[in-house]
Amino acid sequence: MYTIKEADSPSMWQLTARLIHELAVYENLENLCSATTDDIEKLFSDNLLHALIAFNETGEVAGFLTYFYMLSTFRGKKIAYMDDLFIRENHRRNGLGKKLITAWEQIGRSADCCKLEWKCLTWNKPAQNFYEAFGGTKDVENLTYYKVIDK
User: Fold this and answer.
1) Which domain of life is it from (predicted)?
2) Which single residue of 13, 90, 99, 133 has CA 20 to 30 Å from 149?
3) Ramachandran assignment for 103, one of left (phi > 0), alpha (psi -120 to 50 degrees), beta (any other)
4) Kind of pairing, strands 77-87 and 113-118?
5) From the CA atom positions of the chain, what is the Rg in Å?
6) Cα separation of 149 and 123, whole Å?
7) What is the pTM of this model?
8) CATH for 2-134?
């Protein structure tokens, strides 16, 4: 049994920052993860970042999901964008991912979003299968471009 809580306090924001770094290690991207706890706390306090954190019955952190809002000019509505979904290994394959992503979907519906959106690493086939089972559609018509503008 898991409980999902919104990250709504500085202590939860700090926990989210630690989990983001744990995810970066899992994805072998820790060299790209330069966000400090202060950076993450500022995103929360500016109401730009939101998170759901899952705890098991003993209070152990089992996983988390971060999201923020974008917009669709064509639809004139918000898009809920999931940036991170991570389940700690000993909590995988028992429905927690589905519980987190379903809770996020309900938030998107309540916020009158027109779409949920996220990315998935190309090597992460289990995640791709999970997202497709959730009803996600792979976007084969758009490419992602980016330009790093760090100082």
Assistant:
1) Bacteria
2) 13
3) alpha
4) parallel
5) 15
6) 26
7) 0.93
8) 3.40.630.30
